[in-house]
């Protein structure tokens, strides 16, 4: 199966074709060229916005209770919707189509290196906002592309193992931290189940459906099936977690997630659970408050050399 980068490039070509077709039709109706092009591009944006808002509507139908302190007024809700739409547009139309896994090593750094693991239908381009912050703090880091896109989550474990070993070898560290978005958190837990937790200083998950999401019923592939609510695969994964593994996990989630529903699916017993409000699913990778929390957790860690 094609990579997420290739698939999204094809989607962008389809969108470009649709925009140009609309513009061409309007030109033949006497609309000025600039107006026709603007209308064609606008139509694509409106469709993308409708898809994004529909995700919020579907997630709302299966939503968990929102604590009073996280409930949003109209203005805050509009800000959240705008941030999530913009984040989704950037990720799918710019970052992922250009994304490729890489490693950055800061020599003589005293910080625990970090492996970045993306979520479903995405790639390492998702981390475009976090990587500059890691560089600012001189934190060595590597990203990974989980492929095939629709493969089994268990099959990503060898890829993660190889990347962890490469990062440890490049930095001389005995332990690494993992920051994982959405499905990436499940892939990291599946890797720990297969290879153990000895080299894991911390696993930080962002909007990970630890107990599944109803929206996975609409997804394609073995990994989507595994992320359905209380699937047999998720039950087996939970049964394999030890108390020590759970104590190394920090689950960061949002009460307004538009992909993970119910939103309390990200709550993981035995882990440190950190809640946010007014943030959408994709925006977890770029929201300043969330990224500040990720850095705060990473600052807690002490580097151990191999």
Question: What report would you give on this structure?
Answer:
By secondary structure, this protein is of the alpha/beta class. The chain has one domain: Alpha/Beta hydrolase fold, catalytic domain (Rossmann fold). The protein is built from 10 helices and 7 strands. Strand 4, helix 6 and strand 5 form a beta-alpha-beta unit. The longest helix has 29 residues. The two termini are 37 Å apart. The mean pLDDT is 97. It comes from Telluria mixta. Keywords: Hydrolase, Membrane, Transmembrane, Transmembrane helix.
Q: Keyphrases for this structure?
A:
306 residues, alpha/beta, 7-stranded mixed β-sheet, membrane, globular, hydrolase, transmembrane helix, Rossmann fold
Write the layout of secondary structure elements.
Layout: H1 4-27, H2 33-61, H3 74-98, E1 103-104, E2 114-117, H4 130-136, E3 141-144, H5 157-171, E4 176-181, H6 183-195, E5 200-206, H7 222-226, H8 232-240, H9 243-247, E6 249-254, E7 272-276, H10 288-299
Helix pairs in contact: 1-2, 1-3, 2-3, 5-6
Top-tier CATH class:
Alpha Beta
Mean pLDDT: 97
Q: Can you tell me the overall shape?
A: globular
Give the strand tally: 7
Low-confidence stretches: none
| Count of discrete domains | 1
Q: Could you spell the SSE succession in H and E letters?
A: HHHEEHEHEHEHHHEEH
Give the DSSP E fraction (strand runs of 2 or more residues).
5-15%
**Structural class of the helices, strands and pairings?**
alpha/beta
Q: Give the CATH architecture.
A: 3-Layer(aba) Sandwich
Going across the biggest sheet, name each strand in turn.
1-3-2-4-5-6-7
- State the end-to-end CA separation: 37 Å
- At the fold tier of CATH, the topology name is Rossmann fold
Overall helicity = 40-55%
Q: Please outline the major beta sheet.
A: 7 strands, mixed
Name the CATH superfamily assignment.
Answer: Alpha/Beta hydrolase fold, catalytic domain
Count of individual helical segments: 10
Protein name: Alpha/beta fold hydrolase
Keywords: Hydrolase, Membrane, Transmembrane, Transmembrane helix
InterPro entries: AB_hydrolase_fold
GO molecular function: hydrolase activity
